[in-house]
Design goal:
Shape: elongated
Number of helices: 10
Structural class: mainly alpha
Number of strands: 0
Largest sheet: none
Keywords: DNA-binding, Transcription, Transcription regulation
Pfam families: TetR_N
Strand content: under 5%
Order of helices and strands: HHHHHHHHHH
Protein name: TetR/AcrR family transcriptional regulator
């Protein structure tokens, strides 16, 4: 039974993050208060403050949670040969990760200054740079490397714009990925 409070605490933190993320998206990050988060959760502000001292702490925790899969992807890719198939798999997995991070992207678009102050944007940039480094090969032509950049940018920045396109979210993600993979494949043709 000694592990129960820890699990309960972790579950509470996760629930707080989930509710806060929904409110940040619905109301806007700046307009959401700790009081509103506590009210939706049905807990006291004191209970909320026990887990998070400020909404900034909640947003940092959300960002770290969504960034974990990117860190795992980078770690996996570093153990793989830099083949076209590995690059294709990196783009596939990154596309899936970005789909789950879509709410955070929406907050980033609307609250860029607040996120910069928390360092979230820099952390995201560092993760994207790490993925980019895994995609390039020494000795590849400039055109090939530019096409790889295009493919990665398509998956990354396309995730920001997909909500504006009508249709099923998964269908849109797959269409974006397909386009990026075609661009990636053309990078390999450049160096043949």
């Amino acid at each position: 039974m000694g592990g129960t409070p820890h699990v309960r605490g972790a579950n509470t933190r996760n629930k707080i993050q989930s509710v806060a993320l929904d409110l940040f998206v619905e109301l806007g990050y700046e307009k959401t208060t700790m009081r509103e988060i506590a009210e939706v959760l049905g807990i006291t502000k004191a209970a909320l403050y026990y887990h998070f001292k400020a909404k900034e702490d909640i947003l940092v925790a959300i960002s770290q949670g969504l960034g974990g899969p990117v860190d795992e992807l980078v770690a996996w890719a570093r153990t793989q040969p830099r083949t076209l198939e590995t690059k294709r798999e990196v783009l596939r997995r990154y596309s899936e990760v970005l789909m789950s991070a879509a709410p955070l992207f929406r907050i980033m678009q609307e609250s860029g200054a607040a996120l910069r102050a928390l360092g979230i944007g820099q952390t995201l940039n560092d993760r994207v740079a790490a993925i980019g480094e895994l995609m390039y090969e020494h000795g590849a032509s400039v055109r090939s490397q530019v096409r790889i950049s295009d493919a990665l940018a398509s998956v990354h920045f396309g995730a920001f714009f997909l909500p504006a396109i009508e249709g099923d979210p998964e269908e849109k993600r797959k269409a974006l990925l397909e386009s990026a993979l075609e661009t990636l494949d053309s990078s390999a043709e450049e160096d043949l």
